[in-house]
User: Fold this.
Amino acid sequence: MEYFTNRLHGKRKGALSLAAFRTFVDVAVHLADIDDAPNASFWRCEEGFIDLAKSGAILEYAEQEILRGMQIPEYMPEFTLLECDTFRLHLRVVNPGRPKATVLAMPHHRMIYVVEGSVKLDKFEQPRPDPQHIFDPLRKLVRRGSQTLKRGDHISIRALSDSCDFSVDEFAILLELHSACVGRFEWHYDLVTLSPKWILSSDAGEMRAELALMTAANLGSSDSVVHVASLLDHENPFVRASALKALLRLDKDGARACLCKAGEAKHPPEVRKAMNINGAEQAGNEWR
Amino acid sequence: MALTLAIETTEQVELEECVESIAKQVDADDFDSLVESAVSLKKLANNRHFLAAHVNDRLAQCHDNSSADAGDTSFLLARQKRIWIRANIWIPPAMLPMNKLLRASVSAYLIPHDHRFSFVTVGYLGGGYETTIFEYDSNSISGYPGEQVELRFLEKTQLETGKVMVYRAGRDVHCQAHPREFSISLNLLTFGREYCDQYTFDVKRSIITGRAQDFRRAQAVMCQVASRLGNGRTANLLEQVSRQHDDAEIRLCAFEAWSRLEKSQTVEVWKNAMKDRSPFIRKRALNELARLA
Assistant:
């Protein structure tokens, strides 16, 4: 337990004050310790997860949060019950709403248990999830039928491959267990055409790096060159591409040497960016 | 009240000096002290090097992914209890990488809104965003979607480099347009002790369209969860909330949840609600009792 709570450092652990959640954490820790393969232990948590969902712990948690709301003015209850480096546990409520236009393939595995109400699922599969970082509008989803989950039912949803559109006629309560991310991107598909609409990075570090690079490029300080250049070796290809773009704003001569190297990269967006930059440079255009 | 402040100083300070001066000068509950501190933020904006140095530090941390003080569009520069200084980045949609286009298309700043904090803002780089500003009196509203609000047009302006503006919590409503070029603004935010709701508006129809996700809605959802799963113990808790919670909206949610949980006691629950100090709750109780009669 101590090992696990250490891994919850600075993250959500409010539900740990309740016995059923501590029991679940004990199970999860035990399974994580006997398995070396990343995320393999996640699916083995299924039994512990179902026991937790059936245990009445959700009611206890809701009561605890309501009580806190009485004690602390403007208290904001947490719907992420537990969060650590290997999983996140969420309480989710679903209300009837308008039909959605988009269905997502998430970068993490999910187990979902219906605590109350019933949920209609339209299921889809992406037969070719890889390479996930290259957007391809032709990689359509395939329909895999519909299913209604009632109170006490549960479902497992694989990262990247499976997508589900949830709808309800009445208020429903779900408990969701998410694995750590096994991919880096959320794929968003059009629910009518089933074609990909866009991909979003689930990597907050990438977004922060891109923002900092874009800001440095626009501030135009020569002191930034060394910091920007150091990111040309970043493990994330999108960050490398942004670093190259920023470097060209800050130090054109230095960046030109890097263009050839980027043109040989394996990552198509990186190559495309390098080629575009090269073309613009040769045409004498101001590149932004 | 003019929201654009005329501050002409060319003096410049380092971030640390600015933070020190603001910490001495600003009381987060005193709007006038925030306005007086605008000159400190303007002096910081005159410093053309400090932000690049800050961004360089962030870039140095990108390898180990430890830079937690930046979001999608801002850098937190300093934070002391209820006073924050941050740099906001305004990016034209055409400059965003493909995987960020969605975020741009749903940017919250395009929707007319007010703020739950007061703030001074200074244009630091670029032509800035265009903003149309209205004012309203948050004390005169109930806050439900569709409610008619008296919105008074103040000005339409652009936060270009060097311009200083101040926004009042729960008073100024603004809608922004995407910037035409990459722009940066510096913001000094003060969070008063008194809680202030944030709303979105339809300025053409002068109505409230929604309220930002807040503690009331989240506590209401917990009451709903409890009403679906609860037992006698839960009913006692909901009764306690309906009697004792400071917030009328949460008391109403507790009455609703309690009546749902103890269906045989519904009339008694709404009779209790008739004794509530909020006229809004009493009116609702009257309607429920009429419906049940």
Observations:
- Residues 124 and 144 of chain A are 5 Å apart (CA to CA).
